[in-house]
Specification:
Layout lengths: L17 H8 L4 E3 L9 E11 L6 E11 L3 E3 L1 H9 L8 H16 L3 E8 L8 E7 L1
Antiparallel strand pairs: 1-4, 2-3, 3-5, 5-6
Length: 136
């Protein structure tokens, strides 16, 4: 038996995948707070944050923690996931990423209080945690 070289190897398509399209189009979506007037905390952990170092181009990895006290609006979680995934190919510093996430989050849902904590995976023996806060 001889091996035939007539087998075709499928190459990945260059078209935009549906997940990439959702990420690119992703916006923070909100819905009405079901308990306006009651102070309660919402804690969200996003363990797969990635971006790129604006100086070296190396990938940076972090866990993003968002804690907020909603006012009139609450952030929809799938939209938040897609928004966070949009940072994957962005060249942005640790400090700017945490601040930009907070700014966009506050613009979307106008919470009474919000904290974004970006806990970056150590690289080159340096561990960075950036925590930014908003109070209405």
């Amino acid at each position: 038996m001889s091996n035939s070289s007539s087998e075709t190897v499928s190459q990945p398509s260059q078209e935009v995948k549906y997940g990439e399209r959702e990420i690119a189009e992703g916006q923070l979506i909100t819905f009405p707070n079901p308990r306006v007037g009651r102070r309660y905390d919402i804690n969200i952990t996003l363990p797969e944050f990635t971006c790129k170092c604006p100086f070296s181009g190396y990938p940076d990895f972090a866990t993003i923690y968002i804690t907020y006290v909603p006012d009139e609006r609450v952030v929809e979680l799938k939209a938040l996931k897609l928004y966070i995934n949009s940072y994957r190919d962005r060249y942005i510093s640790h400090e700017e990423s945490a601040n930009q996430i907070l700014d966009d989050f506050v613009a979307a849902c106008d919470p009474l209080e919000a904290t974004v904590k970006a806990d970056f995976t150590p690289r080159g023996n340096v561990h960075t945690v950036v925590e930014v806060r908003h109070t209405k």
